[in-house]
Design brief:
Two copies of one chain form a homodimer. The relative contact order of chain A is 0.14. Chain A is an alpha+beta fold. The radius of gyration of chain A is 19 Å and the shape is globular. The first copy, chain A, is built from ten helices and ten strands. Chain A starts with a helix and ends in a 7-residue tail after the last helix. In chain A, the strands form two sheets. In chain A, strands 1-2-3-4-5-6-9 form a seven-stranded antiparallel beta sheet. Chain A has one domain (about 1-295): Coproporphyrinogen III oxidase, aerobic (oxygen-dependent coproporphyrinogen oxidase, 3-Layer(aba) Sandwich).
Chain lengths: ~300, ~300
Amino acid sequence: MAEIKDKFSDFVNHLQKKITSEIELLDQKSKFKNDKWIRKEGGGGLTMVIENGNVFEKGGVNVSKVHGILPKSMSELLGVDQSDFFACGISMVLHPKNPMAPTFHSNLRFFELYQKNKIIDCWFGGGLDLTPYYLFEKDAHLFHSSCKKICDKFNSNYYIKFKEKCDKYFWNTHRNEARGVGGLFFDYCRGKSKDEMNNWLMFIQELGNSFMDPYLDIVRKRTKMRYSKQNVDWQQIRRGRYVEFNLLHDKGTLFGLKTNGRIESILMSMPPRVKWNYDSKPEKGSDEENLIKILKSPKNWI
Amino acid sequence: MAEIKDKFSDFVNHLQKKITSEIELLDQKSKFKNDKWIRKEGGGGLTMVIENGNVFEKGGVNVSKVHGILPKSMSELLGVDQSDFFACGISMVLHPKNPMAPTFHSNLRFFELYQKNKIIDCWFGGGLDLTPYYLFEKDAHLFHSSCKKICDKFNSNYYIKFKEKCDKYFWNTHRNEARGVGGLFFDYCRGKSKDEMNNWLMFIQELGNSFMDPYLDIVRKRTKMRYSKQNVDWQQIRRGRYVEFNLLHDKGTLFGLKTNGRIESILMSMPPRVKWNYDSKPEKGSDEENLIKILKSPKNWI
């Protein structure tokens, strides 16, 4: 589906520019650093990273477009014979400075497989999720409502389906708790016809064009709040769980690291400052304990 | 080999007491916190952790003695039918505050397998390694010399064999660099006779009784050195590599997390404060760059 591929490819470029401008505008201090990179085996990408901002302590917005022979580990995973592939995606992680503001992650991707120069399969995947350090139910509600609104434009089953997949995926099994309050997660979104694939493309585009508004609204609000050293400590301890998820469970990270991806682009998701205290437990009845309680089982936020 | 098992079991208890006393004596500020824990499926352990000391920012010395039905993932790894097991070990990680002082890790363990209540196999394993943030060749030399001295008492081939295994094991594949300057690593140390097993026991005991002296000598010396905020930043960035190794590659950590081990005891190895800056590169000709160069290929330290 050459058209879909080209349209999505243009879309991610445009989206990267749009999102990074919005972030810079809000931050008012730091600017994104651009790193263009080339993949030896085919393709490359543009990694854009912001650090030490007024609002964002660290954040990255990556676009990658890679192609070549499908790595063996991936062909085994997908259950296909030796193939060529094209993969294009935009992924972003934003770690605000203020512990009252949540971390945001999103990824939108398109995958195409070829044998003897003919397309044998193609699909979209992606998702977005919110990781608060202090829970404001209003924020989780706003975030999920906007996810539902976008989903409902396309299919009234999408939201509940993709929300559940998200809760399942962003689960820190070894801690028996969610990474955050979830969002959406979907993969292998295929279409039998060109129209169906176009529908998926429109869904992905709608998501990409819409998800920053509610998130930046939340950040704008929370970033004005006062916070203590103790709040920062808690944020850094919780960021440790984020690291644990990404390095132990996140398939994207592990796949990237095992297939010789660009390390710095993959690990731009790592939080800037992190703490591991031994057996740290929040005080009974505290806001910190409240967060943990909520993360113990997925909640319906709408 | 009931005798070996009991002797090793007593030994690790004694060693834990001895080592934690030595550390407290050196630290002069913080004391170890003791956490006795029970494993639902059989056995338990004693986790001892020190935090926010004068000398040690964080450190743990764990003893565990667990038994029961061998988890499936483990029987597959070992290539045995359904068995019962007993595993006993002492493991420790010490993260000094001063960036001039290296992090130290050691693990000594004994494993026994049973079928129909009869021992079908038993072996020792373990190792120790040093992770400097600033390289003092003298320290690496002292550490390796003392490793060699202990090894040579038992077999003139041990040092070079176990040193090479260590270099291979503590390799951060995704970064293409060593975790630190290495040390010793050995596993599946079996004996055909009781005498041979006793020899391994004596080797392990000799190691356990000796390895703290050179390490604490190094710490005593380096902890007196002055350091800057920039040195601490570098230490925290390098600690990020330590986290990456433990969560991505360390078999012990991953096995523990996947078999429902005690999370806090397994992750006591995590450094206390860690940083991930995007694509951080040391200045040309700096001490920081020198460390990286050395870590790119294993070196002969003697």
